[in-house]
Specification:
Elements: H1 2-14, H2 19-64, H3 71-120, E1 148-156, E2 162-170, H4 186-194, E3 201-208, H5 217-226, H6 237-270, H7 276-279, E4 291-299, E5 302-309, H8 324-338, E6 341-347, H9 360-384, E7 391-396
Parallel strand pairs: 2-7, 3-5, 3-6, 6-7
Antiparallel strand pairs: 1-2, 4-5
Helix pairs in contact: 1-3, 2-3, 2-4, 8-9
């Protein structure tokens, strides 16, 4: 397949003396996209300010009876403002899509051409470079993001003890995925790119809802961040989520059949009739504790984002080790271990923002629950096979110190 060929070629080049050239090209492309995004944001902000002033003036004129304006004129003005905003955003959305596609094609063609030239030259043959399985370049935390962080080293296990690195970080979760500006980003780009096709991937857990839309909640913030640079290796976030939607339809049929058989067996064992209400339950939507993942190459030190589903706020005190989200987290950690994710970042309080319910006592209780559960999952990890998670980062909301 073309994707596998490109992956091998890119992995070889990024471990060659040409790595700096590749990273500079990626940074240059990202700068071009970022400039267009900033122009869009400036124009949109400018338009919103103008619309707010026009609306305030119109409301004042209606209330004072000036210029013969009536409430219908307010509705007309609001409609005009909406149309103007949609027109502006659709214009820049089209320009961004065109720029992404152009950069994507140019970059992949350039990589393949350089690979051919480099392979046929008398310099170091690429065949002697690192293979995927041999690449052991590790990920380090992005210290520029947060001033509040602390690191620990622990050992787990009864007979075969395993060493793990723990980090406690207070930061906005998506700030961890942003590259610094200018040349300061080159070390992070190097770390991310060298591990992209290796056995040392970096994963990030975010709490999402079951809507599977990129225009709401934290998924919208992630989508905006992804759109600020071109994705050269994987489908866009929207395409990946569309693929998840089709997979959910198939999984829903399997779930319905599984629960139907279980209800029938329970009814036979108990001698009671089958619960028809449970039999007719639909499984076409994601449930709390389910998760899906998306792959990325244009996020800082993040290759995989695990979207853990939680439609209800988890800032109450009723979350136990048997809560669907905790059980889902266990399945998530197992998936990470089985798929070469060796660094995993988890929201320690199962929340991205602080709320009024989150007192000091509440935070201590939730952290204790999470530490105990994660420790249990890590102890189980030895029997799962796959790759052990070497580094666990527990993320706290950025405003926890306030």
């Amino acid at each position: 397949r073309d994707e596998e060929v490109f992956a091998d070629v890119y992995h070889s080049l990024i471990h060659s003396p040409l790595s700096e050239t590749i990273l500079q090209l990626e940074a240059s492309y990202a700068c071009t996209v970022e400039t267009l995004c900033r122009e869009r944001d400036y124009k949109a902000g400018e338009m919103e300010a103008r619309h707010a002033k026009e609306m305030a003036d119109a409301v004042q004129n209606v209330q004072s009876g000036k210029k013969g304006m009536i409430e219908q004129d307010i509705n007309t003005l609001a409609t005009t403002h909406i149309d103007e905003r949609e027109l502006l955003l659709s214009k820049y959305e089209s320009e961004l899509a065109t720029l992404h596609q152009k950069q994507y094609s140019e970059f992949r063609q350039w990589v393949m051409c350089v690979h051919e030239e480099y392979k046929t030259s008398n310099q170091n043959p690429l065949g002697s470079m690192f293979t995927r399985s041999q690449s052991s370049f590790s990920i380090s935390s992005q210290t520029e993001v947060s001033a509040l962080q602390e690191s620990f080293t622990i050992t787990l296990g009864a007979q075969m003890k395993q060493m793990h690195n723990l980090r406690l970080i207070a930061a906005n979760i998506l700030d961890l995925c942003k590259y610094p500006s200018g040349e300061e980003a080159l070390p992070q780009r190097l770390q991310t790119s060298m591990s992209l096709y290796s056995n040392n991937l970096c994963g990030l857990v975010i709490l999402s809802d079951s809507k599977l839309r990129i225009d709401t909640g934290i998924t919208k913030e992630l989508s905006d961040l992804c759109s600020r640079s071109t994705e050269f290796h994987f489908p866009t976030l929207q395409t990946q989520i569309d693929n998840v939607k089709s997979d959910i339809r198939m999984a829903g049929g399997w779930r319905k059949e599984f629960h139907k058989k279980r209800l029938e067996m329970e009814a036979r064992l108990s001698g009671e009739p089958v619960d028809t209400q449970q039999m007719s339950k639909e499984y076409t939507n994601l449930q709390d504790g389910d998760f899906y993942l998306t792959r990325h190459s244009n996020l800082c030190e993040t290759h995989v984002v695990f979207h853990l589903i939680s439609d209800q706020p988890l800032d109450n005190a009723n979350v136990s080790s048997r809560h669907p989200v905790i059980i889902g987290l266990r399945n998530l950690v197992k998936t990470a271990c089985m798929n070469d994710v060796t660094t995993l970042t988890i929201p320690l309080l199962l929340s991205h923002k602080m709320t009024e319910r989150m007192t000091v006592a509440w935070c201590m209780k939730r952290a204790e629950l999470m530490f105990k559960c994660i420790k249990g999952f890590m102890m189980e990890m030895a029997g799962w096979g796959g790759t052990e998670i070497k580094t666990l980062q527990f993320l706290l909301p950025a405003d926890i110190h306030q």
